[in-house]
């Protein structure tokens, strides 16, 4: 007799913060998982990507045909997609159209029994922020179709790497005195990310959740001021002085968050606007149908900080960043700065040394200049250095790395970084490794495609610094790789570290 196959579920938004953590939990619960992603390559570095029960399907939610293909044979689907970018585009309308496309595709999938959507808590009525109103509009679009929808409405999600958590942590770490908007007095019921994930998995097992809207929150209701106090205590910092003032608008608040935290003002603004709404559960039905131990805000914060210190951040708010198409480097003017060095280490060790750059590890040379460049970038609306990196030792395709993003990676052979800083052009930094037998050759190539006169002037201005910054970075990789080699073969007596060959 043929064994029954485990149920197949679709996860949209698997490259995002929640989706990237949900997939392994669904696998643990016995499901097969299909992931729909615009940039499927971004999932290749995930620990679960090679699991035979995982299928990664490239596709776009705006393309109904690709959504129908991804839904085929699925018994349930998770809708974990939202733009949340305050820009010139009408992101609420864009999100509504995506939800409509998904709903239409779901209606033509006979095997689909349920859609699960993670929305936002907030009082009903016209006073909701644009961000929360958009979440409700997506919720209505999904529910308008023929497939039953289970909606989980969550408040602030506390977990290592979440956008809300990073805002809270950076504000508390950096500002002993905070002049804040009145929303610091707003009541909230934050929930730990592990509790959110448990609810998301359990809804498929509890039939009574079908077609329901369920509020999910943590074990306590408290103000954002209280959260800041708890964060300061968890970080071992003195009590912060918080001065609420009535004149700070969401726009001014988002710009202040942009300067103080790693988040862009485009993400910070909808979050800041949403903080003015009271986000407290109006029903305990979720707890009754799916009982679990809910972490207190203090426990959730301490768990998140512990994961960060242990370098165990599964996903980050930076993971879902856009990956623009590669520029046409063959067209137009492209400036190239190429440097090579020979290293007495094998390609694997050299690659490990390269993958340590950025974040808390620094850039091997001219760290002060990198910090200044990061400050300038933040002032002009760029990411700056504060995004850091999710893991201090490993890099994966699509990972954010300070001012850069990983857009190409081949184990022990190549690493490609694309600049996301504010630039009058497009910049790429690439490392290429060639095995030469006794020695390994490392090539470091910086490419810049200028836009207009400003781009030409920018390249002319930074070129004198390249000899100092890039040559120093290359030599730093060499020293680190050769030190790793010495430590490997003589751990008890490493001896002096030989300087690498001169760059050429």
Q: What is the element layout, followed by pairings?
A:
Layout: E1 8-12, H1 17-28, E2 32-37, E3 54-58, H2 64-71, E4 76-79, H3 91-107, E5 114-120, H4 130-143, E6 149-154, E7 157-158, H5 163-174, E8 177-180, E9 187-188, E10 191-192, H6 193-202, E11 213-216, E12 222-223, H7 224-234, E13 241-244, H8 250-260, H9 265-274, H10 285-289, H11 297-309, E14 335-343, H12 347-354, H13 367-379, E15 400-401, E16 404-410, E17 414-419, E18 425-435, E19 440-450, H14 452-489
Parallel strand pairs: 1-2, 1-4, 2-3, 4-5, 5-6, 6-11, 7-10, 8-13
Antiparallel strand pairs: 9-12, 14-19, 15-16, 16-17, 17-18, 18-19
Task: Tell me about this structure.
This protein has helices spanning about 15-30, 65-70, 90-105, 130-145, 165-175, 195-200, 225-235, 250-260, 265-275, 285-290, 295-310, 345-355, 365-380, 450-490, and strands spanning about 10, 30-35, 55-60, 75-80, 115-120, 150-155, 155-160, 175-180, 185-190, 190, 215, 220-225, 240-245, 335-345, 400, 405-410, 415-420, 425-435, 440-450. It has about 500 residues and is of the alpha/beta class. It has two domains: about 10-320, NAD(P)-binding Rossmann-like Domain (Rossmann fold); about 325-490, START domain (Alpha-D-Glucose-1,6-Bisphosphate, Chain A, domain 4, 2-Layer Sandwich). The chain has a seven-stranded parallel beta sheet with strand order 3-2-1-4-5-6-11, sandwiched between helices. It is globular and about 65 Å long. It starts with 7 loop residues before the first strand and ends in a 15-residue tail after the last helix.
